[in-house]
Hints:
Elements: E1 6-18, E2 28-41, E3 46-50, H1 57-64, E4 72-77, E5 80-84, E6 95-98, H2 110-121, H3 126-136, H4 151-162, E7 169-173, H5 181-196, E8 200-204, H6 208-211, E9 217-222, E10 225-230, H7 232-238, E11 243-250, H8 255-260, E12 264-269, E13 275-282, H9 288-300, E14 305-311, H10 315-323
Parallel strand pairs: 3-8, 3-9, 6-7, 7-8
Antiparallel strand pairs: 1-2, 1-4, 4-5, 9-10, 11-13, 11-14, 12-13
Helix pairs in contact: 3-4
Amino acid sequence: MAGRRLELVGLGYRHRLHDPQRFKPWNTRPGAGIHDITFSLPTGSIIGLIGANGAGKTTLMRVICGLYEPESGEARLDSETIAAAGMKPQGHAHVGFMPEQVSWPGPGTPRQVLKSLSTMRGDESEHDLDSLFKLVGLSSRSDSPLDSLSQGMRQRLSLAAALLGNPDILVLDEPLNALDPVAQIAFQGLIRQLAQRGHTILVSSHMLAELDRFVDRILVLHRGQVIGEGEMAEVQSALGLVDSMRFSGLGEAPIETFISAGLAVETSRDCEVGHWSLTVDLPRGFSQLQVTELISSLAKSGNPPYLAEKLNHNLAEILAAATGLSPSDVGLEVDDHLVIPLAKFGGEEE
């Protein structure tokens, strides 16, 4: 399928908080939200939307899906505007949304659920439903009672509902919630398969270690604003995060060899008698050829490493570096002051 490019330009939305006054019991004031969001999503890629609780991730997703009317800016699919200030909120056929959690209560089966949703969309093709059940791995349970489905099956049903109409853009809010490790791996494989079919996927999750494994790009949101976007290597470089490698070998630790190569030894420890293990920081631009030459020098010095591995920064470390939060605070509840803008927009905050 030929995907369509999603682009956001200056998108802004703030929730209204109840703020009654003496003669205005209905009065409200602006609360947390998103501010001046500008980015585009490459076709056929998986973008991880990361940020602390309250950073605005769900709000951004709902604006993209047409559930909230933005107060400023617009969202476009190619040249078609799908959300803008003054434009009535409405779902869009080319954007599929999977909410954080759908319980799917009541009687019925997955087939009946999707058939009802298809009817509301004006598409009642039974053949398309069979293909959809096969794609998400629910063919054998398509006619089972809803109350017999496991949480993983319910997540797959939610994804199938988001895929109705074969949308170009998929927006997934916490799709890995309540899934066991095996189900998470299967779900990640399914998301990758959808991207290979041409879908552009924006996925939000607090499970950063799992998200880290299958996204192509990341979008860092903090206090309702984008503070980092791109491939992980690009974001790491922009944040000044230093690459490092771990080496292990036999004998004494060859610290002088690393220093001669211009490398700073970050940590050093003895694994056991007769073995060494240390971690070194790699200067920006340190090439794979230079790594090979370093290993050759270690071998010639009589200290050949039996292990040489690059240590990649994970999403939790990137989020901590981008937001200034400590790694132990990432993913925990945050104070209210962390969901207000970094800078004031359109005047003083109330």
